[in-house]
Specification:
Length: about 600
């Protein structure tokens, strides 16, 4: 179904009508970026319309164009946006401000960036209500408390007095929803509202949005790159690629009968619970790209290698990252009764006591050539565990034994030598790389420091490692900002692998990546393990990724390991209530199996 196929009938059923919208960006280098290029679609009354696509596809630019909030150097250059019979693009700033908030609500991916840190949640709610309604401050305060209660926030009277930094991510997003809806809008634009949230909190927020839609007759334009969110919430779907809507239709049709090659590629490259392959298909394997951003038809599956599409063995030995490790293999890492406590910072929502038990009596093993998944929500202690194991934090108590050596008994000199064998891959590749250093130097300096290369051969070893990680020799003379997120993640992995480590802690290495890039990085970890027999502690909150790449799982909650076992045992026979709640919160892989709504 092409971009031009838009239903112009049944106008009474349409809450928002976008026609031929064009938004271009004009950077200083004289080029023109057509972020939104002749886009047309409708959002129907009382329905959830999901706009899906990867980073750079034009999703957020479309959302900001609808309410005419595109920042320079961007500009809406054409088209119309009709809401309640009015073209919003023709309104002056004053008239448009009356529409925003009162008739169209907006929530964003990062509520901390949308809320003013110097005002309480209550003050920001009251200000919003009084800006659009002729009510007293007391009346606005009463309505604010009602809305905080309506979005299921506990103790709304106390939250009225809290500042944004005192709330958790899920609480902040609920407060943002209350602010967006407190003036009774008929349309809500939600731009990646759950991307930064844990899986259980995401499920709660999505359930809340669907419930409010039904209660107040809301129409929702939900922007996301997450196909699970689409499967759980959407009535209608728009697929965006390179500034164009390339496919549209009811959610069931998009998942069961996708027509466009890009839609098919998105659906095929994602890891799905219960479908464990040797190797995930990647975007480039599923489809061929041709010039000028056009997309050819997807390759026939028979053209793909058997390794790409063959399922893993029942025992997982051929699956991503297991390496077929024998059950009696010797551990390369042994952690016993590890504790890491921090002084607690007091504030709203903090418990009593002066100590935060981030890691509280944790024990586990990682065998040679094995990938162990460490899963749990934000604040569960996953990252602190990984960093303490590598002695990036001092321990409170307990033992960490690496290949027979007590990590915390080593002198600084001996620890520096050990660090070549134990490496860390960070979640945010951009902050992990010095923006002032070229990639070749960033990787090569560690090799020179540890005397694993000479000045004469260091660049050869850098290029060799980059190529191992799917990059080429041209990267060495470029800076981090010149690469995409997926490329930067490969560079960070290459920097860790250049030292030929035997054990790597990978901390949420794919959480910020689009689904097609995520597949490439997941495959890279599996390939590195097969080629180098590396052991991984793979930290993640995404259970579908963990199932694909790991052989065993540790489930962490409130600083403790509450469940452990093989992937199959934990996924198919969970014992702990927390594990069951995590599994129950995984978004559906297809709208037929959705748990939210209907």
């Amino acid at each position: 179904m092409t971009d031009e196929t838009v239903n112009d009938n049944e106008t009474n059923d349409v809450a928002l009508s976008v026609r031929n919208l064009r938004t271009y960006f004009y950077p200083d280098d004289g080029t023109v970026k057509k972020a939104v290029d002749d886009v047309s679609f409708d959002v129907r009354r009382g329905r959830v319309c999901c706009l899906i696509g990867e980073s750079g596809s034009g999703k957020s630019a479309t959302a900001m164009s609808i309410i005419n909030l595109v920042d320079r150097p961007g500009r809406v250059v054409g088209g119309s946006v009709t809401f309640d019979g009015t073209d919003l693009l023709k309104l002056d700033a004053k008239a448009l401000r009356k529409v925003r908030g009162a008739r169209i609500g907006m929530i964003f991916q990062e509520p901390m960036h949308s809320l003013d840190p110097v005002f309480t949640i209550g003050e920001q709610l009251i200000e919003t209500i009084r800006a659009h309604a002729d009510v007293t401050r007391d009346e606005a305060a009463k309505r604010s408390v009602e809305w905080l209660r309506r979005v299921d926030l506990p103790n709304p009277e106390a939250i009225m007095t809290a500042y944004p930094h005192e709330l958790s991510g899920g609480m902040l997003q609920r407060a943002m929803i209350a602010i967006a809806l407190c003036c009774g809008p008929k349309l809500l634009i939600a731009d990646e509202p759950t991307t930064a949230l844990d899986v259980t909190v995401q499920a709660q927020i999505l359930r809340l949005l669907v419930r409010l839609k039904d209660e107040i007759g809301l129409s929702i334009l939900l922007i996301t790159h997450d196909l699970g969110v689409v499967a759980e919430t959407a009535d209608d779907v728009l697929v965006m690629y390179d500034g164009h809507i390339v496919e549209r239709g009811p959610v069931e049709d998009i998942f069961d009968r996708p027509r466009h090659p890009y839609t098919k590629a998105l659906l095929l490259t994602r890891p799905i619970i219960g479908r464990k392959l040797r190797r995930l298909p990647t975007l480039h394997e599923v489809m061929r790209e041709v010039g000028d951003g056009e997309i050819a038809q997807p390759q026939d599956w028979s053209a793909l290698t058997a390794e790409t599409i063959e399922p893993a063995d029942a025992d997982g030995a051929n699956g991503g990252g297991t390496g077929g490790v024998p059950a009696d293999a010797e551990p390369i890492l042994t952690v016993r009764h590890l504790k890491k406590y921090f002084e607690r910072v007091h504030g709203f929502g903090k418990g009593e006591g002066n100590v935060k038990k981030a890691v509280d009596d944790v024990s586990f093993d990682v065998r040679r050539g094995e990938t162990v998944g460490l899963v749990g929500e934000s604040g569960s202690g996953k990252t602190t565990t990984g960093q303490t194991v590598l002695r990036l934090h001092a321990k409170t108590s307990g033992d960490v034994i690496f290949d027979g050596t007590d990590v915390f008994s080593l002198s600084s000199r001996k620890l520096a030598k050990l660090r070549t064998r134990m490496q860390y891959v960070f979640q945010d590749p951009y902050s992990a790389l010095n923006p002032r250093l070229k990639v070749g130097f960033a990787i090569g300096e560690a090799l020179l420091h540890h005397k694993m290369a000479t000045k004469r051969d260091v660049m050869d070893k850098v290029v060799e490692t980059l190529e191992l990680c799917g990059m080429d020799s041209s990267c060495v003379n470029r800076y981090p900002h010149e690469f995409s997120g997926g490329q930067r993640q490969r560079i960070v992995i290459a920097r860790a692998m250049a030292l030929q480590p035997e054990f790597v802690v990978a901390d949420e290495p794919v959480s910020a990546l689009d689904v097609s890039i995520q597949a490439e990085i997941i495959n890279l970890f599996s390939e590195l393990q097969r080629k180098r027999n590396v052991s991984f502690l793979f930290i993640s909150h995404d259970l579908s990724v963990v199932e694909h790449i790991c052989s065993s799982i540790l489930v962490m909650h409130n600083g403790r390991i509450v469940e452990r076992g093989s992937v199959d045992d934990v996924f198919n026979h969970p014992q702990d209530d927390y594990t069951k709640s995590l599994l129950d919160s995984i978004p559906a892989s297809n709208p037929r199996y959705r748990k939210i709504g209907r």
